[in-house]
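One such given next:

>
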Amino acid sequence: MRSFKLIGFLAAASLVAAACGQSGEAPAEQAAPQEEAKPLVLVAGATGGTGSLVVAELIEQGYPVRAFVRDTAKAAERLGADVEAVVGDLKDPASITAALDGVGAVINAAGASAGGGPGNTAENVDFEGARNLAEAALAAGAGQYVLVSSRGVTDDDHYLNRMFNNILIWKRRGEEAVAASGIPYTIVRPGGLSDDSGGNQTVIFEQGDSRSEGIWITRADVARVCVSALAHEAALNKVFEIHAEDGEPQADFAAEFASLSAS
């Protein structure tokens, strides 16, 4: 009887040892799956009205951020001293390349000011700058380029072209250059921009650029859409317009991205 009990004990011990990987230790609990690390995002136009909100939204969503700026003092004032800022110019490809080290995605919220000025025209910033950043980002291995453009870019006779030296025509050429570069892209065309707080209305997604006047959206909601695009593969290689209307704000734009047609 004693030998039978011993055999039973040894058999049970063998099973426990096998479960423990022959280590004699209790089996460890299965490790919880790790959340995929979010990419470092370079933001061009980071000190502007929309760009600064893009930076804030990225930080809120847990993305590491690098601001591409021309003035570090202005960047510290607008973004806070804790945000990494690198000095460069979209007209200077070498400075762009240096800023892209380790970057996984780019959001370009840069745009020419209404007054333009030497070297800061819509042709320089909205077209050439967008193109330079796209080509450098592709060469650096970035996986996505989000461009903030505008409604009305397909209307050559738009009143804004007459007022501001063909600004929408140059924005459209910037869009075309980004798409032609080969980098996966998301092109966002907001309506008129307001500085009201975001997250209070329904964001409407459209395609076709069929209307542009009297349609508004907050800069904060534009920032929310741009940052959300980084998390959804369905946003890749899509061009679309957005504006806001009274209604329930979306917590996420996954369904809206999925409903869009690819370019």
In short: The radius of gyration is 25 Å.
